[in-house]
Amino acid sequence: MESIDLLVLRTARDWLAAGEQVLLATVARTWGSSPRPTGSMMALRNDGRVVGSVSGGCIEDDLIQRYTTAHGGSGLKDSAPEVVRYGVSADEAHRFGLPCGGTLELILEFNPSWQVLDELLVQLDAGQLVRRCLALDSGRVTLQATATPEQFSFDGQQMLNTLGPGYRLLMIGAGALAEYLATMALFNGFKVAVCDPRAEYIETWAVNGVERIIGMPDDVVRDFAVDLRTCIVALSHDPRLDDLALLEALHSPAFYIGAIGSRRNSQLRRERLIEHFGETQASLERLHGPIGIYIGSKTPAEIAVSVMAEILAAKNGANLPKAFSIARAKAQQGLAQSH
Asked: Is 0.85 surpassed by the pTM of this model?
């Protein structure tokens, strides 16, 4: 399952190329609470079909009624982009399902160029990070390759939206936990790869849509073109595989690096990496282990939920409370049981 941004852009491109009229809406600014973050997109076809979202549904309904002829609206005609705002008053906020005090501003692009969208998608599919710039007065869109992700911005005249090829997960070890984690990552729009040099594991892999890589994990990490939208998780329980992969990962720009294991095994791993491979306490700050957040998980499926939650928190820049730490929670449990 690809990311929602790519799905919206690809669908809009295909509709436009087929001669359909399309509205591309982007969340430009928010005040107070809002259901969707800035940069979120939706595409609306003239007959009322929608992909993506900019709210919990009520604003989408309003756009359908305003701009689709099948629902009594004016239709989608070629014009310069517009800015519309929802939820300025308490009544409007309630009507459009926004939290109290919430306000949402959208940029509406009418029948954007399908050729430009196609060029953007070609670059994204090739793994390129692209800055899409929209001039509001003319509707002109320019594309620029970039190496640095930027925050979405809109100054009233120009919208800048950095779009990436999507988030990726590389797993070391093809066991049962990896299959559950892969399923959840795919559901969340990640492209997923699994590496395992052990034939008895990789040859029985059962999750479709996952790239299978047979090779030594450190070589695979080195060749994976790791970027700021990549996370790497070691799940093999074999230090000969996990440790070497982690050493490569720690010197990459991956946004999340983690390894399965108990508190004791995680501590022993850190000691090995420092004593035998020249790592330091500072360089190991990026290494998550034990991985996941504490939810009392026991089964591979529950552990995968825990790990995926921590990965998504890192992706979204959320600072989890210390109480969510598995090591901290289990240490407190042990302390309580000793009294």
From this structure: no
